[in-house]
């Protein structure tokens, strides 16, 4: 495995690599240590990329590897062997947890505890149920 194959594995065959992918290469290949941190990775990425660009090419990636080797105080070939010995990008997913208050209907409150709001009103079926036609006195008060 070569530097080119590492670059292609992490970029999925694209011609350029962005900063997030560059940090992922360093993380997945276990390059980070006390002497070389994620901040250093961002600074080296910014140093090797072209002005105004957001990505680096394979040649710039190799320049970045030389700067990483200097920063870690190890040889370039040792760093390359560390990168090539890695299995490639590591992808991890998260398992969705059950949302307690949404999924457990026994915890519902209010109108939703009784089946939810209804658009049908059983109590009012004609005008006589809405109006009070009982007699009133002169002032409008009920007797």
UniProtKB/TrEMBL annotation:
Residues 134-143 have a biased composition (Basic and acidic residues). Residues 114-143 are annotated as: Disordered. Gene3D superfamilies: EF-hand. One of its GO terms (biological process) is microtubule bundle formation. GO terms for molecular function: tubulin binding. It holds the Pfam family p25-alpha. GO terms for cellular component: microtubule. SUPFAM superfamilies: EF-hand (SSF47473). InterPro entries: EF-hand-dom_pair, TPP/p25. Belongs to the TPPP family. This is p25-alpha domain-containing protein, putative. It comes from Eimeria acervulina (Coccidian parasite). The lineage of its organism: Eukaryota, Sar, Alveolata, Apicomplexa, Conoidasida.
